[in-house]
Design a protein that fits this description.
The complex is a heterodimer of chains A (311) and B (297). With 311 residues, chain A is mostly helical. Chain A is built from 14 helices and 2 strands, in the order ααααββαααααααααα. In chain A, strands 1-2 form a two-stranded antiparallel ribbon. In chain A, α5 packs across α11 and α9 runs antiparallel to α10. The N and C termini of chain A lie close together (10 Å). The relative contact order of chain A is 0.13. By secondary structure, chain B is mostly helical. Chain B is 71% helix and 1% strand. In chain B, α8 runs antiparallel to α9 and α11 packs antiparallel against α12. The chains are: A mainly alpha (311), B mainly alpha (297). Chains A and B meet through α1, α6, α7, α11 and α12 of A and α5, α6, α10, α11 and α12 of B.
């Protein structure tokens, strides 16, 4: 067990290191274009570029630069943003907090919704309810986030005039502005979690112990709640943890659309403005969150599922 | 193993495999969900093929800005869906946009499948160190949040059709590899593979002609889903301004260009959104129908 834990955490660090190497290669070496040109623009003179390279240590060997770069990340020194003319940390942290709020509400709505729908349709596979829920799920996952954002805005902002169309929170935090972004994320994502829950529930319903519980005459409700659910909800736990990875992609689109001042919008802004330092910091944060949540998902799964733990 | 062989599917060549695929599409009649999906996909494929005949205007020509749907143009044709802020006919742009997306999405999917299948076959059939290395690589790539990966890759190598295909191949072939690997692990112990090995056929011949054709069922369903997903990706990249360079029509880009005016001119944004959603829905319903049929037999 301890060995398994160590192995999993070891792999987590290994992944982060490899990803950081890929990032470094893509953004910091000349592999995909000169960083000096990217930062200073196409019209900078060679002398300017040369002095920029000297000033920022770009003339050192790649390995030394990578080690320094990684060391800076590890000690929390994220560098200075070119666009915001200030420490990356000061820009990044409030943005991360905003995205965490958005993510919290998205999950708070999405998890119960998808679990209930998934359990309901998995209880009786092939029933009318099951078919309706799964087709509804296909329908909602078929609409890309930007399109559902457009549809919802047309309905709730321009049509009914219930909700604000942007979520920049310029006049302080307002819960109303959070509704549309969270709704778009929930609608796009719950179908997948519901489908996974359904599959897990359907499998449990066919197992011997559920069958014998039904055959020995337990009330159906009790069979579902006391026997089936416990096992059926192990797999969705992993799926939900892995959704954090997906959410990091989703927030980019949604925050861009609604002008929400979050982490996703910052990452996009950094890449469109060639703010390499900021982009690297954002990407590293995204990877750490993604890989971290996957590790928790794996470890949690082995804790929840004794069949894996003891083999 | 020997008793099982009578029920196993015999080793098939590609000709027979293709015939079976066509037959299974024929079975779609039994699933109305699949039929609706096939109809939607077919509709957009026909629109893409006959784009020059359907579109009455040049998709990039600036004719009459802010025309409402149904306005007559000076040339006598009608702007059925209106025009955008630059006076370009929306219907023509959507029709040509169908061609754009139905060129790049299948191309990217095909390219991802080629890489994914080769990696998966190698990992599953050879096993050992090859499997370990390939699986680790795919684990690492899959641990990235997808869109972050696309943004970084596209931001560094630039936005073009070829680069989008490249980025999608890079990001989605590991997922395909996992599926193919799983299927190969299951199939490589079948009798017909053993028979081919005794005949002395080369590894690649066995992988490509014995194992792959027999793994097609789940792969076809996955390909439909993935095509839908790739269309979303292309749309999202276009929407974020990282898609195909303007002015050529691209549905995601059209939404991005016109969404600031959505309050006054909602149709400019709504029509491309409906177009992309219906095409993706088509592929997803088709996949659902095909899966339903494959589970039945």
């Amino acid at each position: 067990m301890v060995l398994l834990l160590l192995k999993r955490i070891g792999f987590m660090f290994f992944t982060m290191i490899v990803v950081s190497i890929i990032l470094f290669m893509l953004l910091e070496t000349g592999l995909t274009g000169d960083p000096a040109t990217r930062v200073l623009g196409n019209f900078a003179s060679d002398a300017q570029k040369e002095s920029w390279r000297n000033q920022h240590g770009y003339n050192q060997p790649v390995v030394v630069r990578y080690a320094k770069w990684l060391g800076n990340f590890a000690t929390g020194n994220l560098g200075t943003s070119i666009r915001y003319k200030g420490p990356v940390k000061d820009v990044l942290l409030p943005r991360l907090w905003n995205t965490a709020i958005l993510g919290f509400w998205t999950f708070a709505i999405m998890i119960p919704l998808s679990l209930i729908l998934g359990v309901l349709s998995g209880m009786k596979e092939g029933s009318l309810l099951d078919r309706s829920i799964s087709i509804f799920g296909i329908l909602t996952t078929s609409v890309p986030e930007f399109a559902s954002a457009v549809f919802f805005s047309a309905l709730f902002v321009f049509g009914l005039k219930w909700l604000p169309g942007t979520s920049s929170m310029s006049g302080g935090f307002e819960f109303k502005q959070l509704i549309l972004p969270a709704m778009v994320l929930v609608v796009y994502d719950f179908g997948y979690v519901a489908r996974m829950t359904r599959a897990s529930m359907a499998e449990v319903m066919q197992s011997q112990y559920v069958r014998s519980a039904i055959l020995k005459g337990l009330p159906y409700r009790q069979v579902i709640i006391r026997h089936a659910l416990r096992n059926a909800l192990i797999a969705p736990f992993t799926v939900i943890m892995l959704q954090i990875n997906w959410l990091l992609s989703g927030v980019i689109v949604v925050e861009f659309f609604f002008a929400y001042k979050g982490f996703g919008a910052l990452l996009l802004e950094a890449s469109l403005n060639n703010d390499i330092v900021l982009l690297e910091a954002c990407a590293m944060v995204a990877v750490v969150v993604a890989v971290g949540s996957q590790t928790i998902a794996d470890i949690g799964y082995t804790f929840l599922n004794p069949r894996i733990r003891f083999t | 193993m020997a008793t099982k062989s009578t029920t196993e599917m015999p080793s098939v060549g590609y000709g027979a495999a293709i015939l079976r695929v066509i037959k299974s599409f024929g079975l779609l009649r039994e699933s109305w969900v699949g039929m609706i999906g096939a109809f939607l996909v077919l509709f957009w494929v026909l629109v893409a093929i006959f784009a020059p005949w359907i579109a009455q205007f040049d998709p990039n020509a600036n004719i009459l800005p802010f025309a409402k749907p149904g306005t007559m143009a000076a040339s006598g044709h009608t702007f059925w869906l209106g025009t955008d802020h630059m006076g370009r006919d929306l219907l023509s742009r959507i029709v040509w946009g169908a061609r754009t997306v139905l060129t790049f999405a299948p191309l990217a999917t095909l390219s991802a499948y080629t890489v994914g299948i080769l990696m998966g076959l190698m990992a599953g059939y050879r096993g050992g160190l090859v499997d370990d290395i390939l699986s680790r690589i795919s684990d690492i790539i899959l641990s990235f949040p997808v869109l972050v990966l696309y943004i970084i890759v596209i931001a560094t190598i630039g936005a073009s059709g070829f680069n989008i295909v490249l980025a999608i191949t890079f990001a989605s072939s590991p997922g395909i590899m996992r599926i193919v690997r799983g299927l190969t692990l299951d199939l490589r112990n079948r009798d017909y593979v053993a028979a081919a090995q005794t005949r002395g056929e080369s590894d690649w011949r066995i992988m490509l002609f014995e194992i792959l054709p027999n793994a097609r069922g789940p792969l076809i369903v996955d390909a439909c889903l993935r095509l839908g997903y790739v269309i979303i990706t292309i749309g999202v990249l276009g929407f974020l301004g990282l898609g195909l360079p303007p002015p050529d029509p691209d549905w995601g880009g059209m939404v991005n260009e016109t969404r600031q005016m959505a309050m006054v001119f909602p149709y400019m944004t709504l029509f491309p959104c409906i177009a992309i959603s219906s095409l993706i829905l088509g592929f997803n319903l088709l996949a659902d129908g095909l899966r339903e049929i494959s589970l039945r037999d």
